[in-house]
Structures are given as C-alpha cells and as structure tokens.
Amino acid sequence: MMNRTFIEDKLKEHGYKLTNQRKAIIDVLVEHQGHFLSAEEIYSKSKDKYAQTNFSTIYRNLEILVNTHIIHKTQIKDGTFSYELVCSEAHHHHLICKGCGKTENIDFCPIEDLQKKLGSKNFTLTDHKFELYGYCQKCQEDQ
Ligand SMILES: [Zn+2]
Ligand SMILES: [Zn+2]
Ligand SMILES: [Zn+2]
C-alpha cells in the first residue's frame, strides 16, 4: 500500500512539487484506497480539504499522478474515467464494481497463457489491460 511519504518522494523523483491541491487529491485517494473514484468525486472531496481546488486543474493533476504510476486510471462507464491509488507495485489486475467502484486485486494474469498461444502471430506484445466488471456483494444486496 502506498503512503503519503512514498507518494511525495515519487513526485519529487519526477520533478513535481507537492502543492496544496495535489496534497488534497492524494489525501482523498489515500482515504479511498480500494475504490475507483471519478474526477468529479475527487474534485468535490478535494474541495472539502482545500477550498481553492480548481476543477480545470484536476485532470492535469490526475494525469501527472497516472504518468508517475501513483494512480491507476480506467474507464468503468462509457465516457468517464475513474482513478484509484496503485495498490501493488507487482503486475496485477482488478475486479471492479460498476455500482460503487470498489475494487479487488487479482494477481493471476490470464495474458501469460494467451501470449504462448499468440506465438505464431508475429506480434510483439508490450503491455495489456485486463479488468473484470460486475457488482460487489453490497451492491448486489442493494438491488
Ligand atoms: Zn491496482
Ligand atoms: Zn459495489
Ligand atoms: Zn496481466
């Protein structure tokens, strides 16, 4: 799990300062580990912590956090991106709840098997995404 010191060091390593706005965003993400949040949710929760938080810079800051591998970005619903603190440095995949954004790690990678089968395709695979969508227990009970 990532803590604030680790995140701060990682930003510094890439030449980024921990501004008040970034600090507010990171605090929100740390408090919601294990859940994907939309940019709008991150914005409104960050605003509670740091009132000057500006929506126009939220996306830029989220992109910086994605590029420095501090957060994961994914598209659970069409047209909206969701963000979560990176849960493990090791290669892993996610189960994601479409209702509340709750996520769980799966450390099993189905692509390794597939890659063997693709051996004859003359294609060099450099990276991949694999996510499973559905409803968590709580959201199933609420339906
Ligand atoms: Zn993860
Ligand atoms: Zn759920
Ligand atoms: Zn994989």
Automatic annotation (TrEMBL):
Keywords: DNA-binding, Iron, Metal-binding, Repressor, Transcription, Transcription regulation, Zinc
Co-factor requirement: Mn(2+); Fe(2+); Zn(2+)
Single annotated GO MF: transcription cis-regulatory region binding
GO biological process entries: negative regulation of DNA-templated transcription; regulation of secondary metabolite biosynthetic process
InterPro entries named among the record's database cross-references: FUR (IPR002481), Fur_C (IPR043135), WH-like_DNA-bd_sf (IPR036388), WH_DNA-bd_sf (IPR036390)
Pfam families: FUR
Manner of cofactor binding, per the entry note: Binds 1 Mn(2+) or Fe(2+) ion per subunit.
Binding site for Zn(2+): 97, 100, 136, 139
Domain of life of the native organism: Bacteria
Binding site for Fe cation: 91, 112, 128
PANTHER family listed in its UniProt record: FERRIC UPTAKE REGULATION PROTEIN, ZINC UPTAKE REGULATION PROTEIN
Family: Belongs to the Fur family.
Protein name, entry field: Fe2+ or Zn2+ uptake regulation protein
Species of the source: Anaerosolibacter carboniphilus
Top-level taxonomy: Bacteria, Bacillati, Bacillota, Clostridia, Peptostreptococcales
